[in-house]
Amino acid sequence: MRTTTGAHYGLRDWIAQRITAVFMAVFTLVVIVALFTGVAESAERWRAFFGFGPMRFLSFLFAMSLCYHAWIGIRDIWMDYIKPVWIRLTLHSLTLLALFGYAGWCIEILWRL
Amino acid sequence: MAAPRSIQSPNKQRPKFLTLTAIRLPLAGVVSIMHRISGSILFLALPALIALFGLSLESPAGFERAGNLVKQPMIGIPLFGLAWAYIHHFCAGIRFLLLDMHIGLDKDGARRSAVGVLVVSLTLTSLLALKLLGVF
Fold it and tell me: CA distances (Å), B33 to each of A18, B57, B129, in order?
């Protein structure tokens, strides 16, 4: 039987998961290099590092990428192991709600800088 | 319709029950399931990680408090476990990206890269442990 809805979201999510992964990997390397230069040595430098315009912008993108990436990954886990529709729907909803909340929380942290 | 020969054959025990405990998961499979497990652990830890990140950026006092928190074994040791999860997820993820690009798809190549992921991620995690313990 052919599914008549959601014709492309599988491929779109597959690509999104990979693009966000590459972005997060590069961001991680940037942060590691920064840690070696001592940005975590004092509160002032730590704040200045994440408060620096471009870094704040990239950190925001990292948080968004993380949430999208995690959504696809966790959704795949529910789809693989949880069969009863209502439990799956509940878990999907809880995951989405949690990730939206986390995204908002990250924005709040970054926008205060 | 007649059943295929293999099913009719008397010297084959059918159905075949697989002894799950006796089957060894190939290394590529180990890396794969660990990628999923590490990802789930990181997802579950997100609120704690965001809270810690927020605290560290809140104020100089918050930065101090976050620094003291991570030095406590009850928090530091789980955090170190999360560092392993991140490092493993990172390395295994790069392997999957290469596989997506059809690099190392053959059996030997896939096995070698799986070993590579385990070696690199455990080495990096050990280096981090040594760094945190102040060895270098």
Answer: 18, 35, 24
